[in-house]
């Protein structure tokens, strides 16, 4: 009898119990980004392999290593975790260690520089793996090839001891990077930066230069200068002192060498607006309706300029108004000039406002009986295509049989003789009728 038949009959004694779950391997070591496969087998107490049992996989720390329902283990980040493999109430475990990718390069910055006797220079390292990616890692071990010329602290600060050249080595996980440091007899006593002040438009650059001097005013060359900007949203500065204007404002550019520094001021201005275009240049809309206008500030080359504030005005707000966003609203029939201004330049769009056309007319009442000599007031309701009620429109009334009933210019019907008559109301080519029985 099959397992399915046994279960159907209510007898579970024939279903073999899981005795153990076997996994291979029971431990593995992976590198971040690497995948591997764990094989799991389920066995009964009599040594038979149970192929029909569902196997459940779980990782104690998926941020270190995750595992798929097929047993594929993916290394996510350095660390350790344990995988649980379960079936039929039995479990086995796989210990997983994930290592960081091996270092390929320890890059020391700057790779070469000068430092004066008694002065210090801070070195930094970048750890790069085989794929060329910068990776985190432990602090390096620093060593000087000639401590009588230059010494180095555990934090990478190089001290000039005596004139000469020394190699400063940084080692991480057995990988070593080197910087060549020339110790010069004179220390930097002052730094000057030129140009001291400059003005640039957004997108332009300026090259900063530095002059380093010793205490006796002699010029020192071959020393490392570190550049920084006080406002990166205004101007950035490269490691070689090239300043790039980013946004309007003022930034302080600082050049530092061996603890001495000087500053320069860079003022960044927006590119001048040469002309403005308003799109569309003409616009027609019905009273009560809205439509957008767009203002395009352009430089002298016709390039669109961003980040500019636009001022919108209407020459005739009784005809059309305009919001700060450029949305125009038709007020009454006529023509209005809408102007957009920025950076001392302006342009306009001609807006024509028309009446919303009448789409249909309804009369109330539409049918009615009245006596000879009596009067009846008809009411006409005019609507546009959207169903909105329209007012202040010209309306013409007419009787289909003036001998039976007449109608005034306001829709007042007077019964004159017995019979049935149609009363018409017309506006802008649209017509409605009411049937009146005069008794």
Major pleated sheet: 4 strands, mixed
The Cα radius of gyration reads 44 Å
Mean pLDDT: 92
The residue fraction in helices comes out at: under 10%
The best one-word shape is: flat
Structural class: mainly beta
Specify the number of helices: 1
Strand order of the largest sheet: 2-9-8-5
The end-to-end distance, rounded to whole angstroms, is: 98 Å
The count of β-strands is 47
User: What percentage of the residues does DSSP assign to strands (E)?
Assistant: over 45%
Low-confidence stretches: 1-10
Word description of this protein:
The protein has 1 helix and 47 strands. With 439 residues, it is mainly β. The strands form 15 sheets. The chain has a 4-stranded mixed beta sheet, with no helix packed on it. A 4-stranded mixed beta sheet has the order 11-18-17-14, with no helix packed on it. Strands 20-28-27-24 form a 4-stranded mixed beta sheet, with no helix packed on it.
Notable traits:
439 residues; mainly beta; 4-stranded mixed sheet; 1 helix; disordered N terminus
Topology (SSEs and partners):
Blueprint lengths: L2 H6 L9 E7 L2 E5 L3 E3 L1 E6 L11 E4 L5 E3 L4 E4 L3 E9 L2 E10 L3 E7 L2 E5 L3 E3 L1 E6 L11 E4 L5 E3 L4 E4 L3 E9 L2 E10 L5 E5 L2 E5 L3 E3 L1 E5 L5 E2 L5 E4 L5 E3 L4 E4 L3 E9 L2 E10 L5 E5 L2 E5 L3 E3 L1 E5 L12 E4 L5 E3 L4 E4 L3 E9 L2 E10 L5 E5 L2 E4 L4 E3 L1 E5 L5 E2 L5 E4 L5 E3 L4 E4 L3 E9 L2 E9 L1
């Amino acid at each position: 009898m099959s397992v399915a038949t046994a279960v159907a009959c209510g007898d579970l004694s024939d279903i073999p119990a899981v005795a153990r779950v076997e996994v291979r391997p029971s431990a593995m070591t992976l590198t971040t980004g690497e995948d591997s496969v764990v094989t799991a087998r389920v066995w009964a107490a009599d040594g038979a392999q149970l192929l029909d049992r569902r196997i459940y996989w779980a990782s104690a720390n998926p941020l270190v290593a995750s595992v798929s329902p097929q047993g594929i283990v993916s290394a996510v980040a350095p660390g350790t975790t344990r995988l649980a493999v379960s079936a039929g109430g039995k479990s086995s475990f796989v210990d997983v260690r994930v290592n960081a990718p091996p270092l390929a390069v320890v890059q020391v910055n700057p790779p070469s520089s000068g430092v004066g006797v008694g002065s210090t220079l801070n070195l930094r390292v970048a750890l790069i793996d085989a794929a060329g990616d910068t990776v985190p890692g432990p602090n390096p071990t620093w060593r000087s090839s000639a401590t009588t010329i230059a010494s180095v602290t555990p934090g990478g600060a190089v001290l000039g001891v005596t004139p000469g050249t020394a190699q400063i080595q940084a080692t991480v996980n057995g990988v070593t990077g080197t910087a060549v440091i020339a110790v010069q007899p004179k220390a930097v006593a002052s730094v000057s930066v030129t140009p001291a002040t400059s003005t640039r438009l957004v997108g332009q650059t300026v090259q900063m230069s530095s002059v380093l001097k010793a205490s006796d005013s002699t010029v020192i060359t071959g020393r490392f200068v570190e550049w920084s900007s006080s406002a990166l949203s205004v101007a950035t500065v490269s490691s070689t002192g090239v300043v790039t204007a980013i946004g309007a404002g003022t930034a302080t550019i600082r050049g530092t060498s061996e603890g001495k520094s000087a500053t320069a001021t860079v003022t960044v201005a927006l590119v001048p607006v040469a002309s403005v275009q308003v799109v569309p240049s003409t616009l027609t809309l019905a009273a009560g309706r809205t439509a957008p206008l767009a203002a395009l500030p352009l430089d002298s080359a016709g390039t669109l300029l961003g980040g500019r504030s636009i001022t919108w005005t209407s020459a005739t707000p009784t005809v059309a108004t305009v919001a700060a966003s450029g949305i125009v609203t038709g007020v009454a029939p006529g023509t209005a000039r809408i102007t957009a201004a920025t950076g001392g330049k302006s342009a306009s769009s001609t807006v024509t406002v028309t009446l919303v056309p009448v789409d249909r007319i309804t009369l109330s009442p539409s049918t009615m009986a009245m006596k000879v000599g009596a009067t009846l007031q008809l009411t006409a309701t005019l609507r546009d295509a959207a169903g909105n009620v329209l007012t202040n429109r010209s309306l013409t009334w007419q009787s289909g049989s003036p001998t039976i009933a007449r109608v005034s210019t306001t829709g007042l019907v007077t019964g004159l003789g017995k019979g049935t008559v149609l009363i018409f109301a017309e506006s802008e080519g649209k017509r409605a009728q009411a049937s009146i029985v005069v008794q």
